[in-house]
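Dear Dr. H.,

I hope your travels went smoothly. While you were away I took the liberty of generating a structure for the chain from your last submission, since the lab meeting agenda had it listed for discussion. I wanted you to have the full record in hand beforehand rather than looking at slides cold. The sequence, exactly as received, is reproduced here:
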Amino acid sequence: MIEGIIGVEIPLYPQMTEDEITLRLEQEEAAQLGLTCLLKGQITLEEYMDILEMCEVDMDAYCLNFEQNLNAAGLIIV
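The corresponding predicted structure, in token form, is as follows:
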């Protein structure tokens, strides 16, 4: 459940070049590794978000989605 709330998917698009797809897959792998480390308590939420930034995740959209997921799960009230 927590992975669905805090995790991120890095999208692929049909018009991407092979190099862009490779980069996106590497970013997805780094984001997933960061999430695993966060869930194991090896890194902080701030460090996880730094990883997402390095993976070129739109942090404004991510934070809004994160808040909506927390609200939907009943963990916060907005």
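Two observations you may find useful: The chain has a mean pLDDT of 94. DSSP finds four helices and no strands in the chain.

With kind regards,
E. W.
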